[in-house]
Amino acid sequence: MAEAQNIPVGSTTAGQIAVAAESTVATRMSAPPSFDVADFPVPHGREEEWRFTPLERLRGLHDGTAIATDGGLKVDVDAPEGVIVETVGRDDARLGKAGTPVDRIAAQAYSAFEKAGVITVPKETVLTEPIRIAVHGEGGIAYAHQVVELGAFAEAVVVIDHTGDAVLAANVDYILGDGAKLTVVSVQDWDDKAVHVGQHNALIGRDATFKSFVVTFGGDLVRLHPRVAYAGTGGEAELFGLYFTDAGQHQEHRLLVDHNTPHCKSNVAYKGALQGEGAHAVWIGDVLIEAKAEGTDTYEMNRNLVLTDGARVDSVPNLEIETGEIVGAGHASATGRFDDEQLFYLMARGIPADEARRLVVRGFFAELVQQIGVDDIEERLLVKIDEELEATV
Amino acid sequence: MATLEIHDLHVTVEADNATKEILKGVDLTVKQGETHAIMGPNGSGKSTLAYSLAGHPKYTITGGTVTLDGEDVLEMSVDERARAGLFLAMQYPVEIPGVSVSNFLRTSATAIRGEAPKLRTWVKEVKETMQRLNMDPAFAERNVNEGFSGGEKKRHEILQLELLKPKIAVLDETDSGLDVDALRIVSEGVNRVRETGEVGTLLITHYTRILRYIKPDFVHVFSGGRIVESGGAELADKLENEGYEVYTKGGASA
User: Fold this and answer.
1) What are the boundaries of each domain within chain A?
2) Closest chain B CA to residue A364
């Protein structure tokens, strides 16, 4: 039974909601996927996949003028025993298996990196501590590629933490063997000037479970493409995201879940708060249920909370269903604002203004934060949210 | 004994690029233990009085004074007024997505009382108060006012009144939009608070209906932005029979 929903709730003057017109996920890209940057024309900004992105702030990542600098980026991996951490050359067979670049910058990153990182959790290895990848920008331009591969029935949590200042185009591949369980937390806690563009591909094995948290706070421009496809039946993906977009920041999350295999599940929930003049969040949620993907169960949701005037949200959920033989499919997008009347109401009950804001924003994010399950990250996020709020007038 | 004194209060509001005076010299004293009903036709400025007392930013005070036990209320921010003991039950409470009723009530009680209430006694206190207001316990897990019916919103306002125990409670058209059962339950809540003798109540209403449940000590007729007549409970009976016409036609237009 197919069940499609589209519920744009409460669009306000502060936020904008656009619901995609009919178009297929594949054909509205300006070029087919490719590992070679030469296969993509330099974007001019009117293409469907670039129309929300301020190209002039990409610092040349999109047109080939950004040349990698030495020592621009420092990457440290801290892995528990039993995990294999390698640095490999471009010809390593494990690179690029989870997905193919879909836009020019992802292809640029793939064409330009010199060494890639490969982290392997051997089959049936169950980790009790997270693998931590600290990516610290030292002010340079960098292209990078990272692979995380879990063997059959392996279980791991990976935290990728981005800090500092960089102009970075980087792709990440997650490959999950049969029955594997992987949780990934990618934190974009960049300094104000950083530019970060990347494609995250997950290939989910039979009966495997992939859970991802994409947390974006920092940067001048962050544009990420989390993508999921299934390599066998019974796979499950949960894609969660949180972003806090401040004055002048552009934070863009473009998701694709490709239900290319029968009897798989996906659940997408992204929540963002925005404040300040020129804060711009973009959320594109594409879910494709291919004709062969019978028994699919999927839901995607985006919620935005606009805290001040001058912020803008573009939220585009897009669900394409090529078979009716599914368990369920739905999507929802809503943008609301924290307004003066809400502030008045809380203050009229004795709650000071800053605490009132904190109450609302913490409440808004709580349901997602609580699911991360990595204590220090959860705590840091709550502190971060409070810091962001204190930065407001 | 707590006393709210309003003296010669003038209030304006900006509308359609013009400044309009809504309150034109309000004088009123409300003491702890007393119940005052303010009655008046639509547009007479009753709600403006309520919101001005609470400090809503939309209203500008252009003259007069408001003091609570001698302290200048008009100098206080909205939250300071609440902590000083002023409570406004709103006619149209707003939705606050992402904030549960239980979290909201506890944060508010902590702010008003100056310390976090002890968890065990607090949970019991909330539960019992909700029961008396005929509220389902599941209500506490819903987001503040989100998807509440009109009656639920008003009960939630009175729940706060009972928990926060203010010195002066201003009830802005708490009776509007309620059916008889809900009106009775809400009125009983207000009466429980009044019976403590520790709250001064300012009941703002368009209808006399609620005065069958909540007996006022004083009734004031509000028209043209000021109080035009004051009396005892019998004045409400007069309004019931004769309506507001005599006030809207005559004296207030000066």
Assistant:
1) 6-338, 339-393
2) B98
**Closest residue of B to A366, CA-based?**
B98
C-alpha Rg value of chain A to the nearest Å: 20
Question: Can you name the residues that pair with A117 across neighbouring β-strands?
Answer: A87, A146
A35 or A376, which is more confident? A35
Q: How many distinct structural domains can be found in chain B? A: 1
Query: Could you tell me the two tokens for B226?
Result: 């000021």
pLDDT in tens, A351-361: 999 899 888 88
Q: Say yes or no to pLDDT of A14 above 50.
A: no
B112 and chain A in contact, CB less than 8 A? yes
Residue A240's contacts (CB-CB under 8 Å, 6 or more residues apart) are A211, A212, A213, A214, A268, A269, A270, A368, A371
Type and span of the H or E element at B30: strand B18-31
ipTM surpasses 0.90:
yes
> In Å, how far from its chain's centre is CA B104?
19
| Alpha carbons B148 and B182: distance in angstroms, whole number | 14
What's the whole-number mean pLDDT along residues A355-380? 86
Alpha-carbon distance of B55 to A347, in angstroms, equals 10
What CATH code is carried by the domain that includes residue B15?
3.40.50.300
Residue scoring higher pLDDT (A23 or B85): B85
Subunit contact A350:B83, Cβ cutoff 8 A:
yes
Closest residue to B96, CB basis, from A340, A345, A348: A345
Task: Label each residue of A140-167 as H, E or C.
Answer: EEEEEEEEEEECCCCEEEEEEEEEEEEE
Residue B159, both tokens: 């729940």
Question: What is the domain range of residue B166?
Answer: 3-253
pLDDT band at A16, cuts 50/70/90?
very low
Interchain CB contact of B147 with A (< 8 Å) = no
Provide block-wise average pLDDT over 10 residues at a time, chain B (254 residues): 96 93 97 96 93 97 97 98 98 89 96 95 96 94 92 96 97 93 95 96 94 95 95 91 81 43
Q: Do A363 and B98 touch (CB under 8 A)?
A: yes
DSSP letter string over A305-363?
EE-STT-EEEEEEEEEES-S--SEEEEEEEEEE--HHHHHHHHTTT--HHHHHHHHHHH
Pull the structure tokens for residue A165.
Answer: 């200042």
Calpha distance A391→A254 (Å, rounded): 27
The string of pLDDT tens digits covering residues A117-170 is 999 999 999 999 999 999 999 999 999 999 999 999 999 999 999 999 999 999
For A158, half-sphere exposure in the C-beta direction (CA atoms, 13 angstrom radius) is 32
What DSSP character marks residue A115?
-
Q: Is the dihedral of CA A269, A105, A87, A192 positive or negative?
A: negative
User: Quick one: pLDDT at residue A25?
Assistant: 64
Find where tokens 């900004």 sit: A45
Cα separation, B205 vs B88, whole angstroms: 14
Q: Collapsing DSSP states into helix, strand and coil, what is residue A83? A: coil
Q: A261: which DSSP letter?
A: S
Contact A348 B160 (CB under 8 A): no
Kindly report, residue by residue over A25-58, the tens digit of the pLDDT.
655 678 899 999 999 999 999 999 999 999 999 9
- Beta-bridge partners for A176: A150, A204
Q: With contact defined as beta carbons under 8 Å apart, do A343 and A353 qualify? A: yes
Find tokens 């692979």 and name the residue. Answer: A147
The closest CB to that of A359, out of B55, B90, B107, belongs to: B107
- Partner-chain contact B97 A360, CB within 8 Å: yes
Nearest CA in chain B to A365: B98
Two structure tokens written together for B186: 């809400």
